[in-house]
Amino acid sequence: MSELRIGLVGTGGIGRTHIERINNTLQGGKVVACADPVGAFGLSVAEKYGIKGFENPIDMINDPEIDAVMCTTADPYHEEYVLASIAAGKYVFCEKPLAPKADACKRIVEAEMKAGKKLVQVGFMRRYDEGYKQLKAAVDSGKYGEALLLHCAHRNPSVPADWDNSMAVENSMVHEIDVLRWLLGEDYATAEVRYGKSTNNGPKDLHDPQIMILTTKSGVRIDVESFVNNKNDYDIKCEIVCDGAVLNMPKPNYISVNANATTGQAMYTDCFQRFADAYNAEIQTWINASKAGYVDGPTAWDGYCCQVAAAAASKARETQTIVPVEYDEMPDFYKK
């Protein structure tokens, strides 16, 4: 096909950003229709962008003039619309998480296997970031020895007022859960989450920062700091201690600013600035692969594995204990 005709369900902020990205920046695809669980809102967004609007997202997914689906709804709707896309035999890109709970992810995995073809890609955009890609290439090369320890940080200037203690894992560090599993090429064995002294920047009952500690099956030890109210910048760090070297993620290309008698660097304040190129590469890859008839990115199984580890980390946070991460055995379907 010359152009992938995309139907987008979920017309909130990130959905609208993806419409603009696909229709104005990327190649080979076009969002030709949209819908939203709140039907009237989806229709208003369709009118804004001059595309076809559907009041019912399922009708859009099943429309024969839609080649592929992008799901950018609130998390609880993901399962319904991804399953509908699989049933329609259409490639579907689902923003993370694949579904909020591991059992829902498992149902998606089972539906995809029953369909007999991989159709689902999960929106873990950090795998497409040049810094993480350089780290993975260095680890995979073997010339620095084995990875032994990882030290990571995920810092935000602020978060919405409804942010609670569970969200440090489930909405923030979930990115590290996926990208570090991909970077090291192995699953996790245990998860732990510990609290430090809390900042005064957030609500008094919010534990911030938090430290997540993961151990892989081969024994690699990972610590991830989540500090979501640092009042400063959006800052992502990853350092890998190997047998023969210490590997650090390259710093983003901030501009240098001379202002107010001070020389310094402007810094990113959100993920859409920091990972703009990664988002573009991720969606372009999905468009290209969907047109060619295959999935070339994080699979439904990756989405399931992420939620299993996130659930273990959340239980570890609640109990302040070390919790095993227990996956089902990977089906042969996903080993190909």
* Overall spatial form: globular
Task: Give helix and strand order, one letter per element, not per position.
Answer: EHEHEHEHEHEHEHEEEEEEEHHHE
Largest sheet: 7 strands, mixed
Percent range for β-strand residues? 15-25%
CATH class label of the largest domain: Alpha Beta
What distinguishing features does this structure have?
336 residues, alpha/beta, Rossmann fold, Dihydrodipicolinate Reductase, domain 2, 2 domains, 7-stranded mixed β-sheet, 6-stranded parallel β-sheet, 10 helices, 37% helix, globular, EC 1.1.1.369, oxidoreductase, NAD, Gfo-Idh-MocA_inositol_DH
Characterise the protein shown here.
- The chain has 336 residues and is α/β, with parallel strands linked by helices.
- The protein has 2 domains: 4-126 and 277-306, NAD(P)-binding Rossmann-like Domain (Rossmann fold), CATH 3.40.50; 130-270, Dihydrodipicolinate Reductase, domain 2.
- The chain is built from 10 helices and 15 strands.
- The strands form 3 sheets. Strands 12-11-7-10-9-8-15 form a 7-stranded mixed β-sheet. Strands 3-2-1-4-5-6 form a 6-stranded parallel β-sheet, sandwiched between helices.
- The chain is globular.
- The model has no long low-confidence stretch (mean pLDDT 95).
- InterPro entries: Gfo-Idh-MocA_inositol_DH, Gfo/Idh/MocA-like_OxRdtase_C, Gfo/Idh/MocA-like_OxRdtase_N, MI/DCI_dehydrogenase, NAD(P)-bd_dom_sf.
- Residues 136-324 form the Gfo/Idh/MocA-like oxidoreductase C-terminal domain.
- Pathway: Polyol metabolism; myo-inositol degradation into acetyl-CoA; acetyl-CoA from myo-inositol: step 1/7.
- Belongs to the Gfo/Idh/MocA family.
- Keywords: NAD, Oxidoreductase.
